[in-house]
Amino acid sequence: MSENATIQIHVRILPSEKEIIETNAAAAKMSLTEYVRRCCLKKKVMDTSWVAGITNQIIRIGVNVNQIAAVANKNKSVSDAQIDLLNRNLIELQNKMQGIIDCMQTPEDKTLLAVKDMTRAILAKLDERDESV
Questions:
Q1: Counts for the chain of helices (H) and strands (E), in that order
Q2: Whose CB among 11, 34, 51, 54 lies 3.0–4.6 Å from 30's, allowing a Cys bridge?
Q3: What does the pLDDT read at residue 13?
């Protein structure tokens, strides 16, 4: 919430409407105030809990890459199984990130635009990897 947001608006709604709004705000992982503000200003309401899943996936891939690098440095070779595991993880990540882009077709704020741009950049890097293999 902005430090300058000091004006209150009072609205009368039915108890059933309040329950629906509270449920929707909770599902979007937003405060009631932020949810109502975004809805009224026609900004995209989006659950960002997926960020943790993507972060964990990237960490898993990083661990796999480090393990493969350690084995390669020690044995001067890497097994096909290790490379296959890394490729499966990268493909899974690419699919998840494409899903993120697909659900952000009409972002209205700078945060979503930045996430969309970063996701596209990562997908471009994954495509470069696919072409070099």
A1: 5, 0
A2: 34
A3: 92
Distance between CA 94 and CA 57 in Å, rounded?
10
Domain ranges, ordered by start, for the chain = 1-47, 50-132
| Site of tokens 């599902």 | 27
- R_g of the chain, CA atoms, integer Å: 21
Cα(32)–Cα(21) distance, rounded to whole angstroms? 8
CB 107 within 8 A of CB 113: yes
pLDDT digits (tens, 9 = 90+) for 82-113: 778 877 877 877 777 777 766 665 555 566 66
Q: What is the DSSP string of the chain?
A: --TT----------HHHHHHHHHHHHHTT--HHHHHHHHHTTPPP---THHHHHHHHHHHHHHHHHHHHHHHHHHS---HHHHHHHHHHHHHHHHHHHHHHHHTSS--SHHHHHHHHHHHHHHHHHHHHHHH-
Residue whose pair of structure tokens reads 């490379």 in the numeric block: 83
pTM of the complete model? 0.41
Please enumerate in sequence order all residues whose Cβ is within 8 A of that of 23, keeping only pairs 6 or more positions apart, or say none: none
